[in-house]
Amino acid sequence: MQTNSKQKIITMAVLVFIVILALAVYVILEMPEDMRLGSGVLSDAEVAIHIIDVGQGDAAFIDNGDKDILIDAGPGDSAPALLEYLDALGVYEIEYAFFSHPHEDHIGGADDIINHYKVENVVMPDYYENTACYRKLMEAVDYEGSDLIYSCSGDKFVIGDITVEILSPGPRYKPEDANGVSLVMKVSYGEVDALFTGDAEVENEEFILRNYPDKLDCEILKVGHHGSSTSSSEEFVYAVSPEVVVISVGEDNTYGHPHVETLALLNSHLDKIYRTDRDGDIVIGITKDKYWIAE
Question: The CATH number of 38-293 is which of 3.60.15.10, 3.90.79.10, 3.90.25.10, 3.90.660.20?
Answer without folding.
Answer: 3.60.15.10
